[in-house]
């Protein structure tokens, strides 16, 4: 279960990181306009949100299935992070259709630019908060990882 969670998290968070840091700037430079890049981003963010939803679902399942094996402090942190990720996703899912209503991909037009950029700014901030919560979750996950194999722990048995 934890391997599936880590793989889905890597797809979502890693994809999110790569897209925001590489694809968007390169696309804007290549296409000559951040506005044109935005029409591509509109479609990609649907998939990012689906990946986030799957990640949060698996995170919640992992928390539930392994609740007895976690220290209370770790469990509370992970629950808080899951709630934070969920709130961000719900907010993004609420904002995305509002942005969709204001743009026409085929005509590459925005019907109300002031409203679009106001909502888009909020969308970007919420996305940033979601990304940071994801980074904290990853750090928490990695710090909580303890190898179960005695050899990996350094407790090698003597061959005597």
Order of helices and strands: HHHEEHH
The amount of helix comes to over 70%
Radius of gyration: 20 Å
Structural class: mainly alpha
Name the shape in a single word. elongated
The proportion of strand residues reads under 5%
Oligomer designation: single chain
Whole-number total of structural domains: 1
End-to-end Cα distance, whole Å, is 38 Å
Query: Number of helical segments?
Result: 5
List the strand order in the largest sheet.
Answer: 1-2
Mean pLDDT: 85
Description:
The structure is a single chain. The chain has 160 residues and is mainly alpha-helical. It has one domain (2-144). 81% of the residues lie in helices and 2% in strands. It contains five helices and two strands. The chain has helices spanning 2-31, 34-65, 72-102, 113-144, 150-153, and strands spanning 103-104, 109-110. Strand 1 (103-104) and strand 2 (109-110) form a beta hairpin. It starts with a helix and ends in a 7-residue tail after the last helix. The relative contact order is 0.12. The mean pLDDT is 85.
């Amino acid at each position: 279960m934890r391997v599936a969670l880590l793989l889905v998290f890597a797809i979502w968070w890693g994809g999110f990181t790569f897209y925001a840091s590489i694809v968007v700037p390169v696309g804007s430079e290549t296409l000559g306009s951040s506005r044109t890049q935005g029409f591509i981003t509109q479609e990609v963010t649907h998939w990012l949100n689906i990946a986030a939803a799957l990640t949060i679902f698996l995170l919640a399942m992992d928390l539930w299935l392994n609740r007895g094996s976690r220290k209370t402090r770790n469990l509370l942190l992970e629950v808080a992070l899951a709630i934070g990720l969920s709130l961000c996703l719900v907010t993004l899912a609420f904002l995305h259709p509002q942005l969709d209503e204001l743009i026409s991909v085929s005509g590459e037009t925005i019907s109300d630019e002031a409203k679009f950029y106001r909502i888009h700014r909020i969308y970007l901030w919420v996305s940033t908060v979601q990304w940071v919560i994801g980074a904290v979750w990853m750090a928490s996950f990695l710090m909580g990882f303890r190898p179960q194999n005695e050899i990996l722990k350094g407790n090698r048995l003597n061959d005597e």
